[in-house]
Amino acid sequence: MFLSYVLAYLVCEAASIPGWLCMIILIVLLVTAHRILGVEKNHVFLLGVLFFGIKDMCRLITESLYYIFNMKFLQGLCNESIIYRNVAVGYSAVMILRFGLLFIMLLFISHRLQKETLELHVKELCYLCLIPIAGILFGNIIFRLFFTVKENVFFLLYEQSPVFIGLIPLTSVLFYVGIVITITSYQEMVRLQEEKKTYFVEEQQLRAIRERMEEVEQFYDGIRRMKHEMKNHMTNIKGLAGSGSYEEMGQYITKMDESLDAFELTIKTGNAVTDVIVNDKQKAADKQGIKFSSEFLYPASDGYDVYDIAIIINNLLQNALEACERMEGEKDIFLFRAGRKRDFF
């Protein structure tokens, strides 16, 4: 991507297009062609801003070196051929140094960017572009101040204020360091957010596992009690049948049916895992005197992880139950019908 900017920039230089116009044209063209390049358009824009910002910083650094070279090797010379030779040698050396420095600085930034894939939205893009854009503006201001003419008198910035010979390269280096730090800090922030997200998911999974374990323990406790009581029930039924108390025996069996209903899943969602969760929450709501209505149906697709959906449903219903406990008066809770909206369930 940086190579594309370098090649396109050299074409603009050969066509004598002004630097600011060249920057705008190139970024717009390459952002438009982002699909062909196989790069997301926000990344293309960011790389364009980085390229031109770093290019200006390299020029500011080498301009100071070029001025120092001219001071040492051109002053006091009278022979035109020697002056032209020294100017040619100095300019060539500075241009080679400028492109070499640009290559090294871009290479380092590209390695920094490749360490982690960035998903850039508008806010993140603005954050990452802030320092390079400030560097571009700074560079354009300094370039305009390098040479000034007042009343037919030629002024050179470095001759007027020699302190700028060191300050301008130092400021350029600080801009570059600021870019590197901004990218690094943003990548670190993204990494911390991913870790936080992972920790949150693991915490929710652990909470869901604990709740499932408690529910399973309660379920098997109920089965053990039922098995223990079943012998007594059978003895009582035999006794009622032996004494001819058929009406009382019928009432007794009806009560047994009601106690067995506790193990029946009354709400059918289309999936065994979500069946257990929704029915558990319904029983919890009944104990708290909360009306519970469910129209949830599990999505008829293999593209969803039932465990993920179970965690979401469990958390939603638990939060709703806790909220209903804090309400005054009649308490209602509804699990609305599931549906699909575009690519979202």
Core attributes:
345 residues, 5% strand, 75% helix, two-stranded parallel ribbon, rod-shaped, mainly alpha
Question: Biggest sheet, open or closed, and with what strands and sense?
Answer: 2 strands, antiparallel
What is the N-to-C succession of helices and strands? HHHHHHEEHHHHEHE
Helicity level, as a percent range?
over 70%
Number of helices: 11
Cα separation of the termini: 37 Å
Rg over alpha carbons: 38 Å
The strand order across the widest sheet is: 1-2
SS strand fraction: under 5%
**What is the average per-residue confidence, as pLDDT, rounded to a whole number?**
80
> Total strand count, please?
4
Structural class: mainly alpha
Which runs of at least 5 residues are low in confidence (pLDDT < 50)?
none
The general outline is rod-shaped
Task: Write up what this structure looks like.
With 345 residues, this protein is mostly helical. The protein is 75% helix and 5% strand. It contains eleven helices and four strands; from the N terminus they run ααααααββααααβαβ. It has helices at residues 2-14, 19-32, 34-37, 41-73, 80-114, 122-146, 157-160, 164-243, 246-260, 272-287, 306-325; strands spanning 147-150, 153-156, 291-294, 332-335. The chain has a two-stranded antiparallel sheet with strand order 1-2. The chain has a two-stranded parallel sheet with strand order 3-4. Strand 3 (291-294), helix 11 and strand 4 (332-335) form a beta-alpha-beta unit. Helix 2 runs antiparallel to helix 4 and helix 4 (41-73) packs parallel to helix 6 (122-146).
